[in-house]
Amino acid sequence: MSPTIELPPPEPESCLITSRVSSHKGGTLVDEEVRDLGAHERRVSDPDGYRPASCARCGHRGLHVHCYRERQPRGDERMPRVIRIVQYICAGSGCGATWRILPMFLARHLWRAWATVERVSKPGEHAVQCDDAPTLPTVPVPERTERRWRARLAASARVLVVLLATSSGAVLEDLAVRAGIDATRGELVVAHADLAGIAAGERLSTLAALVHRLERGIRLM
Q1: For 58-62, 73-77, 196-200, which range has the lowest pLDDT when averaged over its residues?
Q2: How far apart, in whole angstroms, are the C-alpha atoms of residue 31 and residue 40?
């Protein structure tokens, strides 16, 4: 009988690994300091609360409030039905880039709070159990959505590992080495949480924000 050959994880969907830095005039920025709804509501109620110091496209230091958009997170009764998101526009001559500022706890493309995605997809399930963790109010997530999230976490993290390894940061290089080039995205989440001491409930949001900061458009999930 031939020995079992361990196959590498499947490649991720193209939407997860396509950079948008040069192809889009503006986009989304994630504020990594805003980790809960209360902090977001305080920031978004002040026109200066989320205002970037400079345009991420041209470096101009003048940005004005352009509009307010709405996000409607699902699957978590702690979240309001609608959350306002502020968008700024660069006042630099010939630029006009617009930037949506997203709090770290909201997933960019999944229309959920990251805590909801983490609760359902359970990255590194054995590592995130905590006897003292509070019981959170939940809303059922469709099985098809759950399967898609789990499949994405089971996909190859090769692009993310290379991104971390070339980021010119010793800690991130260490993370890339710990995870390894053949790690899945779920394994990378657990390695990052262990290295940085990230609590359950913020494991996906923290790594997703880090990846987005290093290369806009590259997605964890």
Answers
A1: 73-77
A2: 10
Q: What is the pLDDT of residue 78?
A: 83
Q: Is 25 exposed, middle or buried (0-12, 13-18, 19+ CB in 10 A)?
A: exposed
The interaxial angle of helices 158-165 and 185-196, nearest 10 deg, is 40
Please report, as a single letter, which amino acid is at residue 202: E
Write out the residue range of the structural domain in which residue 179 sits: 114-214
Query: 78 CB contacts (<8 Å, ≥6 apart)?
Result: 37, 136, 137
**Domain for residue 134, yes or no?**
yes
Q: Tell me what the mean pLDDT of segment 21-27 comes to.
A: 71
Number of domain units in the chain: 2
Same domain for 149 and 99: no
89-147 confidence digits (pLDDT tens)? 999 999 999 999 999 999 988 989 999 999 999 886 644 444 444 455 567 889 999 99
Interatomic CA distance for residues 145 and 74, integer angstroms: 12
Q: Which residues are within 8 A (CB) of 193 and not within 5 positions of it... i.e. 6 or more apart?
A: 124, 127, 128, 203, 206, 207
pTM passes above 0.90: no
Q: Give the bridge partners for 67, in sequence order.
A: 87
List, in sequence order, every residue forming a beta bridge with 89; answer none if it has no partner.
Answer: 64, 98
Would residue 220 count as lying in a domain? no
